[in-house]
Amino acid sequence: MKDVASSKEAPFNLSEFTIGQRAIQSPDAIALKIISNSAQNSLPHTWTYSELDIAIRSIANGLLHEGVSPGDFLPLRLKSDTPFALTFFGAIAAGIVPIPLSPGLTEKEVSFFLKDTGAKHCAVSANLNMPTELQHHVDKITEEDILSFLEKPQPLAYAKTYENDPAFLIYSSGTTNKPKGVLHAQRVIKGRLPMQAGWHQMNERDMVLHAGEFNWTYTLGVGLMDPWIWGATALIYSAKSSKEKTPALWPELIKTHGATIFAAVPGVYRQILKYAPPSEEDLSSLRHGLTAGEALNQKLHKEWQKQTGTKLYEALGQSEFSTYASTTKGFKLPVQAKGRIQQGRKVTILKEETLNEKPIECEKGEEGLIAIHKSEPGLMLKYWNRPEEMKKAFCGEWFITGDRGLIDEEHNLTHLGRADDVMNTQGYRVSPQEIEMTLNSHKEIAEAAVYEQQIRSDLSIISAFLVLKTETECQAQVLTELNSILTETLANYKHPKSFHFIKKLPRNQSGKLMRKELKNLVPKNT
């Protein structure tokens, strides 16, 4: 892959900025602690910044010797464990562009990502197979290979990349039936700096524990990048399987390892309170919790604070830009506000009716579309292989987030929902079209539609509405077959959790699906 853009300024590498500089400033400080109930591999459990720096640069050297070239894409089909984290930063250190992938993806989904990027190599854990059709076209770099790079360290100098060179590619569901790649630049790490004062407030004394998987930018950012930028210690729980990550696990880890900051989606906090409610004594080390990915319900926040004595601070963002508004210690916001625009951010509200002409900014308190200025260092480089979507995403100097909202005189942001159909489930953005295409592949389905059904103020699920070709078709058999198709085709978080058979979908006079009307078709006792 060719560089998208290169600056004539001094070289800049995300991994060097995150880890290399800290290794010079505080070589003996603890950067990483691995928490494990069993020996997953031969890696040490504690890493200083100096040791982490050497490990990452040794992986960089190893990847290049395996034939991966600077600028190449490298999908990471690895378990959410230490090798995943080290390889992500090691690839960037070599000028290679990693693509974090969920271990729960199906072979068809992985096949799409490999074809979309033209990747010639893929880092793969032993229990995660490569798509059969691509096994002879994509070279595997195994977890054992990665461990061998660390057994005999041969650190390479950080690649001389530049701020506008690609750093990593993350796939996110959009408004089409296929995920879209969001390509971020090396400078994205500078775009994270305002989060320190406006949200997480990390410092060198912090122990940071994140409950998410590494394929998510929320985890990579808040769980690893931010702690290492500010000299804190990142805590990684190494699990044999996701089944180990029960609600009771997180309070236990916080108490045992003295975590001072815990990060998760709101649903994790809700599950902890319901199934394993901790006491203030259990979480005595915790300064505060962080939430993102889903809206934080104020009732949940109050229950958490009452039970544990700690507050939750929320951030609002997206794959293309990470976070731009948040809450933190000392902020007093209006009840309806989701956060305050982080200091230094170039974020505004645009009048929707002006987007086809010259964009006009709204007055304070006026509702419109949330937009981010293209000069923001944290803003993506582009959508990969999506030139038309890239054009639609920008209006003049502004990136249109697709979220609606308003900003008051104190820079507090009230979020008013999405302007498109993208759903949010379990913290992931999910395209309804991608799911509908899978449902429609069943031979007995005439048409299908899905929407995000709000179960409670803090919980939503994907509901599917199915129109059969013949009413005599056995619904139970169709559902059984659909579940098999979904399991083979889509990651579990994309699966509808409820199904409704109806005679026809609600459409307007032009035949366009009226997705918002689907909620009226859900039985009241559901």
Overview features:
526 residues; alpha/beta; Rossmann fold; Luciferase, domain 3; 4 domains; 14-stranded mixed sheet; 4-stranded parallel sheet
Number of strands: 26
What is the CATH topology assignment of the largest domain? Rossmann fold
Q: Please state the overall shape, judged from the principal axes of the Cα atoms.
A: globular
Structural class category? alpha/beta
Content of β-strand: 25-35%
The averaged pLDDT comes out at 90
CATH class of the largest domain: Alpha Beta
CATH architectural label of the largest domain: 3-Layer(aba) Sandwich
Are there runs of 5+ residues with pLDDT below 50, and where?
Answer: 2-7
Total of helices: 13
Cα(first) to Cα(last) distance is: 49 Å
Please summarize the sheet with the most strands: 14 strands, mixed
Proportion in helices: 25-40%
Q: Rounded to an integer, what's the Rg over CA atoms?
A: 23 Å
The number of domains = 4
Describe this structure in words.
By secondary structure, the chain is an alpha/beta fold. The chain folds into four domains: 1-28 and 44-186, Rossmann fold; 193-331, 3-Layer(aba) Sandwich (Rossmann fold), CATH 3.40.50; 336-420, Luciferase, domain 3 (Roll); 423-521, GMP Synthetase, Chain A, domain 3 (2-Layer Sandwich). Helix content is 27%, strand content 26%. The protein is built from 13 helices and 26 strands. Strands 1, 2, 9, 10, 11, 12, 13, 14, 15, 16, 17, 19, 20 and 21 form a 14-stranded mixed beta sheet that branches. The longest helix has 17 residues, at 49-65. The chain is globular. The model is unreliable at 2-7 (pLDDT under 50).
